[in-house]
Amino acid sequence: MKEVFTFILTITVVFQSCNYKPQDQVEQKVGPTKKEAIVNIDTVRKIGASIHSFIGKTTEDIEVLQMHTCLGVMLPVIESKAKFALAQYSAIIDHCQRGRTKFVIERFLRYDTNGKSVFVILDELNVETNYPVTCYGNFRLAIEGDREENYLVTFYDNNCEVITQISRIWRIDLEKEKFVEISKPKNLTLTNPDYIESDEDPAFTFPSTGEKSF
Protein backbone atom coordinates (compact mmCIF):
# COMPACT_ATOMS: atom_id res chain seq x y z
CA MET A 1 0.00 0.00 0.00
CA LYS A 2 2.87 2.34 0.83
CA GLU A 3 4.49 1.65 -2.54
CA VAL A 4 1.22 2.47 -4.38
CA PHE A 5 0.91 5.80 -2.53
CA THR A 6 4.50 6.73 -3.43
CA PHE A 7 3.86 5.92 -7.09
CA ILE A 8 0.72 8.11 -7.20
CA LEU A 9 2.58 11.01 -5.55
CA THR A 10 5.38 10.76 -8.11
CA ILE A 11 2.92 10.91 -11.03
CA THR A 12 1.26 13.99 -9.51
CA VAL A 13 4.60 15.86 -9.20
CA VAL A 14 5.58 15.01 -12.80
CA PHE A 15 2.19 16.17 -14.08
CA GLN A 16 2.52 19.52 -12.30
CA SER A 17 6.03 20.01 -13.69
CA CYS A 18 4.80 19.42 -17.24
CA ASN A 19 2.10 22.06 -16.78
CA TYR A 20 4.71 24.74 -15.83
CA LYS A 21 4.83 27.58 -18.35
CA PRO A 22 7.66 30.15 -18.68
CA GLN A 23 5.12 32.96 -19.04
CA ASP A 24 3.83 32.19 -15.55
CA GLN A 25 7.09 33.57 -14.22
CA VAL A 26 7.21 36.43 -16.71
CA GLU A 27 3.77 37.62 -15.68
CA GLN A 28 5.05 38.13 -12.15
CA LYS A 29 7.65 40.67 -13.29
CA VAL A 30 6.70 44.31 -12.89
CA GLY A 31 8.28 47.50 -14.16
CA PRO A 32 10.15 49.96 -11.94
CA THR A 33 7.94 51.99 -9.67
CA LYS A 34 7.88 55.77 -9.51
CA LYS A 35 9.69 55.57 -6.19
CA GLU A 36 12.54 53.60 -7.80
CA ALA A 37 12.83 56.21 -10.56
CA ILE A 38 13.16 58.97 -7.97
CA VAL A 39 15.89 57.03 -6.20
CA ASN A 40 17.79 56.71 -9.48
CA ILE A 41 17.61 60.48 -10.06
CA ASP A 42 18.83 61.18 -6.54
CA THR A 43 21.70 58.73 -7.05
CA VAL A 44 22.82 60.58 -10.19
CA ARG A 45 22.76 63.87 -8.29
CA LYS A 46 24.80 62.56 -5.37
CA ILE A 47 27.39 60.58 -7.34
CA GLY A 48 27.80 63.05 -10.19
CA ALA A 49 27.14 63.20 -13.91
CA SER A 50 30.35 61.46 -14.96
CA ILE A 51 29.36 58.08 -13.47
CA HIS A 52 26.49 57.43 -15.87
CA SER A 53 26.94 57.34 -19.65
CA PHE A 54 24.65 59.60 -21.67
CA ILE A 55 25.65 58.19 -25.08
CA GLY A 56 22.56 57.21 -27.05
CA LYS A 57 20.25 59.16 -24.77
CA THR A 58 18.26 62.19 -25.88
CA THR A 59 17.93 65.62 -24.34
CA GLU A 60 14.46 64.53 -23.22
CA ASP A 61 16.09 61.76 -21.16
CA ILE A 62 18.45 64.32 -19.61
CA GLU A 63 15.49 66.46 -18.58
CA VAL A 64 13.99 63.47 -16.76
CA LEU A 65 17.25 63.10 -14.83
CA GLN A 66 16.95 66.80 -13.91
CA MET A 67 20.54 67.57 -14.86
CA HIS A 68 21.75 71.16 -14.93
CA THR A 69 22.74 72.47 -18.36
CA CYS A 70 25.95 74.47 -17.91
CA LEU A 71 26.51 75.08 -21.62
CA GLY A 72 24.65 74.59 -24.87
CA VAL A 73 25.90 75.97 -28.19
CA MET A 74 25.33 75.08 -31.83
CA LEU A 75 28.49 74.09 -33.69
CA PRO A 76 29.25 75.67 -37.08
CA VAL A 77 29.09 73.05 -39.84
CA ILE A 78 30.00 73.75 -43.47
CA GLU A 79 29.74 70.49 -45.42
CA SER A 80 27.12 68.57 -43.44
CA LYS A 81 23.37 69.06 -43.49
CA ALA A 82 23.10 67.68 -39.96
CA LYS A 83 22.92 70.06 -37.02
CA PHE A 84 25.32 69.53 -34.13
CA ALA A 85 25.69 71.06 -30.68
CA LEU A 86 28.14 71.01 -27.79
CA ALA A 87 26.63 70.80 -24.32
CA GLN A 88 27.86 70.54 -20.75
CA TYR A 89 25.84 68.85 -18.01
CA SER A 90 26.34 68.63 -14.25
CA ALA A 91 24.31 67.03 -11.51
CA ILE A 92 24.94 70.09 -9.33
CA ILE A 93 25.14 73.64 -10.66
CA ASP A 94 28.35 74.39 -8.70
CA HIS A 95 30.09 71.52 -10.52
CA CYS A 96 29.94 73.49 -13.77
CA GLN A 97 33.08 75.31 -12.62
CA ARG A 98 34.26 73.20 -9.70
CA GLY A 99 33.52 69.48 -9.74
CA ARG A 100 32.52 66.55 -11.91
CA THR A 101 30.91 67.49 -15.18
CA LYS A 102 30.29 66.09 -18.64
CA PHE A 103 30.75 67.57 -22.12
CA VAL A 104 28.76 65.94 -24.92
CA ILE A 105 28.42 66.14 -28.69
CA GLU A 106 24.78 66.23 -29.77
CA ARG A 107 23.04 65.86 -33.14
CA PHE A 108 19.62 67.28 -33.90
CA LEU A 109 17.03 64.51 -33.96
CA ARG A 110 13.55 66.02 -34.23
CA TYR A 111 11.09 68.50 -32.78
CA ASP A 112 8.78 67.46 -29.97
CA THR A 113 5.04 68.17 -29.89
CA ASN A 114 5.72 71.64 -28.48
CA GLY A 115 8.19 72.51 -31.22
CA LYS A 116 11.24 72.14 -28.97
CA SER A 117 14.42 70.72 -30.49
CA VAL A 118 15.40 67.21 -29.37
CA PHE A 119 19.03 66.09 -29.71
CA VAL A 120 20.65 62.67 -29.39
CA ILE A 121 23.99 62.38 -27.58
CA LEU A 122 26.79 60.94 -29.73
CA ASP A 123 29.87 61.11 -27.50
CA GLU A 124 30.85 62.34 -24.06
CA LEU A 125 33.87 63.55 -22.16
CA ASN A 126 33.91 63.21 -18.37
CA VAL A 127 36.09 65.85 -16.73
CA GLU A 128 36.82 67.54 -13.43
CA THR A 129 36.64 71.32 -13.39
CA ASN A 130 38.44 73.56 -10.90
CA TYR A 131 38.13 77.23 -11.80
CA PRO A 132 40.44 79.05 -12.46
CA VAL A 133 43.12 76.33 -12.55
CA THR A 134 41.26 73.89 -14.79
CA CYS A 135 38.77 75.50 -17.16
CA TYR A 136 37.19 74.27 -20.38
CA GLY A 137 36.20 76.27 -23.42
CA ASN A 138 34.93 75.81 -26.96
CA PHE A 139 37.14 77.40 -29.61
CA ARG A 140 37.06 77.63 -33.40
CA LEU A 141 40.66 77.15 -34.59
CA ALA A 142 42.72 76.30 -37.68
CA ILE A 143 45.59 74.35 -36.12
CA GLU A 144 45.53 71.10 -38.14
CA GLY A 145 45.30 72.68 -41.57
CA ASP A 146 43.79 75.67 -43.30
CA ARG A 147 40.22 74.86 -42.35
CA GLU A 148 38.81 76.04 -39.03
CA GLU A 149 37.35 73.34 -36.80
CA ASN A 150 35.73 73.12 -33.38
CA TYR A 151 37.91 72.32 -30.37
CA LEU A 152 37.41 71.79 -26.65
CA VAL A 153 40.36 73.16 -24.70
CA THR A 154 41.54 72.82 -21.09
CA PHE A 155 43.29 75.94 -19.85
CA TYR A 156 44.24 78.07 -16.87
CA ASP A 157 42.15 81.23 -16.71
CA ASN A 158 44.67 83.95 -15.87
CA ASN A 159 42.00 86.66 -16.14
CA CYS A 160 43.91 88.18 -19.04
CA GLU A 161 42.96 88.83 -22.64
CA VAL A 162 45.28 86.09 -23.94
CA ILE A 163 45.30 82.49 -22.68
CA THR A 164 48.79 80.98 -22.70
CA GLN A 165 48.61 78.05 -20.24
CA ILE A 166 46.87 75.27 -22.18
CA SER A 167 47.06 71.69 -20.95
CA ARG A 168 44.85 69.53 -23.22
CA ILE A 169 42.88 69.91 -26.44
CA TRP A 170 40.26 67.80 -28.24
CA ARG A 171 38.99 68.17 -31.78
CA ILE A 172 35.20 67.93 -31.93
CA ASP A 173 35.17 65.61 -34.93
CA LEU A 174 31.72 65.88 -36.48
CA GLU A 175 32.49 63.30 -39.17
CA LYS A 176 33.39 60.63 -36.61
CA GLU A 177 30.96 62.20 -34.13
CA LYS A 178 33.57 61.91 -31.38
CA PHE A 179 35.97 63.88 -29.21
CA VAL A 180 39.48 63.25 -30.57
CA GLU A 181 42.37 64.35 -28.36
CA ILE A 182 45.31 65.81 -30.25
CA SER A 183 48.81 66.93 -29.32
CA LYS A 184 48.95 70.50 -28.11
CA PRO A 185 50.61 72.74 -30.72
CA LYS A 186 53.67 74.62 -29.53
CA ASN A 187 53.24 78.27 -28.59
CA LEU A 188 49.47 78.03 -28.91
CA THR A 189 47.66 81.04 -27.49
CA LEU A 190 43.94 81.77 -27.37
CA THR A 191 41.76 84.80 -26.89
CA ASN A 192 40.03 84.58 -23.53
CA PRO A 193 36.27 84.68 -24.26
CA ASP A 194 35.45 85.63 -20.66
CA TYR A 195 37.93 88.48 -20.37
CA ILE A 196 36.34 91.88 -19.89
CA GLU A 197 38.59 94.90 -20.05
CA SER A 198 37.81 97.63 -17.54
CA ASP A 199 36.96 101.05 -18.94
CA GLU A 200 38.56 102.74 -15.95
CA ASP A 201 42.23 103.62 -15.75
CA PRO A 202 43.64 102.12 -12.50
CA ALA A 203 46.29 104.85 -12.41
CA PHE A 204 43.68 107.63 -12.32
CA THR A 205 43.64 109.62 -9.07
CA PHE A 206 41.13 112.06 -7.73
CA PRO A 207 42.65 115.55 -7.46
CA SER A 208 41.19 116.19 -4.01
CA THR A 209 42.03 112.95 -2.19
CA GLY A 210 44.72 111.22 -4.22
CA GLU A 211 42.80 107.92 -3.92
CA LYS A 212 42.76 105.44 -6.80
CA SER A 213 39.55 104.64 -8.61
CA PHE A 214 38.48 100.99 -8.30
Radius of gyration, whole Å = 29 Å
Kindly state the mean pLDDT as a whole number?
77
Strand content: 25-35%
Q: Helix share of residues?
A: 10-25%
Question: Would you mind describing this structure in some detail?
Answer:
- The chain is an alpha+beta fold and 214 residues long.
- The strands form three sheets. It has a four-stranded antiparallel sheet, with no helix packed on it. Strands 5-6-8-9 form a four-stranded antiparallel sheet, with no helix packed on it. The chain has a two-stranded antiparallel sheet with strand order 7-10.
- A hairpin with a 5-residue loop joins β3 and β4.
- It has helices spanning 2-18, 22-26, 34-47, 59-64, and strands at 68-75, 84-90, 98-111, 117-130, 135-141, 149-155, 162-163, 166-173, 178-182, 190-191.
- It has four helices and ten strands.
- The chain has one domain.
- The longest helix has 17 residues, at 2-18.
- This is Lipoprotein.
SSE inventory with pairings:
Layout: H1 2-18, H2 22-26, H3 34-47, H4 59-64, E1 68-75, E2 84-90, E3 98-111, E4 117-130, E5 135-141, E6 149-155, E7 162-163, E8 166-173, E9 178-182, E10 190-191
Antiparallel strand pairs: 1-2, 2-3, 3-4, 5-6, 6-8, 7-10, 8-9
